[in-house]
Amino acid sequence: MKTLLTAITIVSSLLLAPGNQVVFAEPAGNKPVSQQTELSSRKGLQSIGFFNLAISVPDINASVDWYQRILGFRKISQSDLSNGVSIAMIERNGIIIEFLKVPNQQPMPMLNQDPPKHLQFLGVKNLTLWVDDMDETVRELKSKKIPFIWEARTLPEVGTRVTMIRDNNNNLITFWERRGNVWQQLSKP
């Protein structure tokens, strides 16, 4: 369990590093936070901000459709590039996911293992998202007939509940319930 929590901590820290200001509200206007291009007064690496998560997929339209129907994302762009790459971007609450389709893609089944075996292979393990109400999130996913890997599993070591599902391409998506001080719990020895 400790290994699992360590891995979850590492993956979650990619999006929610302590000390970083995380904005969960809809941005002003129609432009998501991750697409805002105004320069900050910060310089160099101090200006780092999250832009998007890119996922290579076999069918862009199927992925866009799944994320729209199941998680409520909206498509913000889609195009075919001159080098044979197709790209689509979706957004929800300032989170941008980019889908890429390229010729001759190869699946990597070892990356699609169920927990805790998914931790045996190096690389990004899952997309982790916050939710305010885990019970409502689980109800909504069940109403959409989504199978669960973990359903509102309590992680007492971090003081929250976690639900895990797979998207239409077998990628892991984890929902952490936003309650208590998760970072304080994770920093305990």
Write the layout of secondary structure elements.
Blueprint: H1 2-15, E1 53-56, H2 60-71, E2 74-80, E3 86-92, E4 95-101, E5 127-131, H3 134-143, E6 148-155, E7 160-166, E8 172-177, H4 182-186
Parallel strand pairs: 1-4, 5-8
Antiparallel strand pairs: 2-3, 3-4, 6-7, 7-8
Descriptive report:
The protein is α/β, with parallel strands linked by helices and 189 residues long. The protein has a single domain, classed as 2,3-Dihydroxybiphenyl 1,2-Dioxygenase, domain 1 (Roll), CATH 3.10.180. 22% of the residues lie in helices and 27% in strands. It has four helices and eight strands; from the N terminus they run αβαββββαβββα. Strands 1-4-3-2 form a four-stranded mixed β-sheet, with helices on one face. The chain has a four-stranded mixed β-sheet with strand order 5-8-7-6, with helices on both faces. β7 and β8 form a beta hairpin. The chain is globular. The protein starts with a helix and ends with a helix. The N terminus is likely disordered.
**In which order are the strands of the major sheet placed?**
1-4-3-2
Fourth-level CATH superfamily? 2,3-Dihydroxybiphenyl 1,2-Dioxygenase, domain 1
Number of domains: 1
Tell me how many strands there are. Answer: 8
Instruction: Give the percentage of residues in beta strands.
Output: 25-35%
What's the story with the biggest beta sheet?
4 strands, mixed
Average of the residue pLDDT scores:
79
CATH architecture assignment = Roll
Please tally the helical runs, counting DSSP H or I stretches of 4 or more residues.
Answer: 4
Order of helices and strands: HEHEEEEHEEEH
CATH secondary-structure class: Alpha Beta
Computed structural class: alpha/beta
